[in-house]
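Checklist before submission:
- one chain only
- standard amino acids only
- sequence pasted in full

Submission:
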Amino acid sequence: MGGREIPLLRQRDFRALFTGQLISILGERFTYLALVGLLAEHTSHFRDPRSSLLLTLLANVMLAPVLLFAPFTGPWLDRTNLKRVMVASDALRSVIVVLIPILYLGTGNTAPVFALVFALFTCNVLFLPAKSALTPEIVPPAQLLMANGLLSIAGVVATAAGALSGGWLIDHWGWRTALYLNGATYGVSVIALLLISYRPHHALAPPPGISWRRYFTEVAEGWEVVRRNRAVGIALLSLGAVWVGGGFLHVAGNQHIQRSASAPGMERLGLLMCALGVGSLIGTWWINHRGKNAPRAVLLGGGLVLAGLGIVVFAVSARFAVFAAAAFVIGLAAAPAFMLSETLLQEGTEPRQRGRVFSARDFLMRLVFFLGVTTAGWASRSLGLRATLLICAGIVTAAGALALWWGRRGAEPRVA
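Returned file contents:
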């Protein structure tokens, strides 16, 4: 080969992972919009006083599996075949999303829906850290940043396409159809993942024997890796701010959009998610091609400040065109937090620790999302939607300023 690198999308293993993620994330956007559409139908387009409570409950049910299980799954992931975990998770998710409309139509009650959503996101507890830990094992180290960039692009392209088509699909064909289609996309992802040729890192050197004491020691070791790495700290600060903002927007943003619309429905939400995805796509492309050498603290902190300003514009307006412009800016500004934090964590950990580290990351991010959702639910009822969104903007902007200050203090993270 003369030392030349094979382009990532010509490498069978990465191409299979990329394709599976592109298709399954497309379906996941259908699921989110469909669940919001289900609740909108259940509450007369969020005019029911229970709207904030049900949206908060939906978010909390999505988060509960991560908060309950993620801190303890890492050592098990570090000892098992990551490909098998991902295949089994997607197969289960395919079945679960198809059962949601069946049980809701059979009962007319949201309780079975929330139970199935809990099961769906329990699968995510295993799938997401397994995917993050698997990527550096099938990609050459010199191509890791580009690989994460391409996976991010797959995510935002799927988000944009899924949101745009999903909103229209739900408004014209119903949220049930969207869930049935998502079941099919998970099936396609299973087929793609089966094409990956993967040999676990522990195949040649099996891990030491396990006991309860040893298991919890390994859990603590994963948290220690996260705690002591200052470069990872600034990345997690930025990523956490994005998750907090997402929690506020899930509760207050959804209601703000529907109440401002002349004709409530999921199509507008889908268009705004598409604008968010396009902004994130451009931000990810720019980092990979133009921003590689830019100071990481400036990319992360400056992006959060810009995202905060976008949320302010969204909060004070009632015009859809302004909503779309704000969503584009927020997506553009949030891109560094997702892409850079993934690469920094992968480069800063050994293969035997990655399951633990990424499980810890997922736990922390869902915890701050839970705090954001809970705070937004209370603030929406007590202070109103506009005040709640302005509080969200203040939190995100403050985190950006802290990241910039931390970078100047010598915690500047670098990507190899």
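Reviewer check: The CA atoms of residues 6 and 403 lie 36 Å apart.
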